[in-house]
Amino acid sequence: MASVAPAASAEETELTLIHHGKPIVLSFAQDATLAELSRKVEEELSIPLANQKFLVGSKLGLQKPPFKDPSIALSTLVSKKITLMGSTTAEVFSLNAHITAAHAPRRPGPIKAATPARNTDRKKLQEEAQYTFQTLRPLPYLPNPERSLRFLERLRDDAGIKAAMRSHKFSVPLLTEMDPAMHTTQESRTLGLNRNQGEVIELRLRTDAYDGYRDYKTIRKTLCHELAHNVWGPHDQNFWTLCKQIEREVARDDWRAGGHSVGNQEYYDPNGEEEEVHDHGGWTGGEYMLGGSGQGTQMLTSSAGGSVPVGNLSRRDILARAAEERAKRGRQADEESKRAEDGTAN
């Protein structure tokens, strides 16, 4: 871009142009015309005639070569604002180079090895929906039942437990928590119960004082014990062989290596004065159902005797809801599998 011209003599006319927001002063003879302005812009600013446009005041407006009236005297334009629009030869060359580079074919880079598609194990999804705990139920009358529900959910979703359930084809209609007060005597504490070979499994989740939860791995081991009662009732050699097998399978397939605390609660540490027992064998018969108190309060009768208030839950309800839940989980598994397959195909 040309530098500002030296001060004009009395016989010269100075004209100020605005180009790219900056003023440029050019000097001309007194009788110079619009055509001479164009030639000087080409010579001193390197803007070709074809690229030049002049916006002159409000009356003349836009002017560009070849002008309609190239004889207009520049002396009549001194007081007007003149904006020069146009690119220099260097600017045009640079722009064309960028355009050419952008459209040039690119050399292909090294071919990357194809990543194998992640196959969806549809059979596994279906089995996990079928072989599981269909209903989880904390005791609503104990403190913080939502915390117990999270504990039961963690047991249900434990990778080791899920693998063992699929392997042995265990489907349990109801997994619930046990009220410590109803299963504690001076001689022993019961940790779990299994009714009618897996119709209902109860687990002792809480401490005796209801102020915390027991160790997760201890409860999970109790659950393994109760799952073995789905096949064998008495504590005979058959039962213990299966129980130890399930424990080994759960530990082997627990890829997340569980065992952390739930809710940062304190854990029960037996003091040795009372013996802890998993149970007294799988129990059969009886009704895990609602009983009426005559005053509209719903009661739950458990294996240990005694009743506690709960929501509507009868044996028929348990089985019906379990069937509904299995069907629902099966549909969900099919939908998830289909979505995963569609995503792989895309």
TrEMBL record:
Occurrences of domain WLM (ranges): 124-328
Superkingdom of the source species: Eukaryota
Spans annotated as Disordered: 257-346
Biased composition (Basic and acidic residues): 314-346
Database matches in Gene3D superfamilies: Phosphatidylinositol 3-kinase Catalytic Subunit, Chain A, domain 1
Compositional bias (Gly residues): 282-295
Pfam families in alphabetical order: WLM
UniProt GO molecular function: proteasome binding
Biased composition (Polar residues): 296-305
Name this polypeptide is given: WLM-domain-containing protein
